[in-house]
Design goal:
5 helices
C-alpha cells in the first residue's frame, strides 16, 4: 500500500505545530505538506506557481478561515476540477457555525473537527484517518 500524504491547508503556525505533535504522538510517519491557504493548496495539487505537483494518494486537512481563498471557496474550486474533485477532505476549524458545517458537508467533506477540541479530539480524528485509509480503497482516476 502506498504511503498517504497529508496536505495540511492552514495559515496558523501554532495549529500546524499541534498537528505535527499529534502525528508524532501517534507515530504516524506520513508526509505532511503545508499550504497556507486555498490558493496555495491548489498550486500544490496542480503543480503550479513553483510548487511540485502532489503525487500519489493524499488526504486534505483543511481550515475554513484563511486569507485570500478560504476553505469553503477552496472546496468549491476543488469539487469543480475533474482531476481533483474526488479528493478526500477533512475540515479542521474553529468555526462552529451550522452554516459552515452544512456547506462543508454539501461539498462532500469526509469529516469536521473543531480546533477548540484539537487535543484528544485531533488524536482521535487522526486515528480514524489512519484506519479510514487502511479500510477504504479509493478508485484510481
Amino acid at each position: 500500500m502506498n504511503t498517504v500524504t497529508f496536505l495540511l491547508v492552514e495559515d496558523d503556525d501554532l495549529d500546524v505545530e499541534i498537528v505535527h505533535r499529534a502525528f508524532n504522538k501517534l507515530k504516524l510517519a506520513n508526509p505532511i505538506v503545508r499550504a497556507y491557504d486555498g490558493l496555495d493548496a491548489l498550486d500544490h495539487l496542480r503543480g503550479t506557481n513553483g510548487h511540485d505537483k502532489l503525487e500519489g494518494e493524499y488526504i486534505i486537512l483543511l481550515d475554513i478561515n484563511m486569507p485570500r481563498m478560504n476553505g469553503l471557496e477552496f472546496l468549491k474550486e476543488l469539487r469543480q476540477d475533474p482531476e481533483l474533485g474526488r479528493a478526500v477532505v477533512f475540515i479542521l476549524t474553529t468555526s462552529e457555525s451550522e452554516k459552515d458545517i452544512f456547506k462543508a458537508y454539501e461539498l462532500h467533506i469526509s469529516g469536521y473537527v473543531l480546533k477548540g477540541l484539537m487535543g484528544s479530539s485531533l488524536e482521535e480524528a487522526l486515528k480514524m484517518l489512519d484506519a479510514f485509509w487502511k479500510v477504504v480503497v479509493l478508485p484510481k482516476s
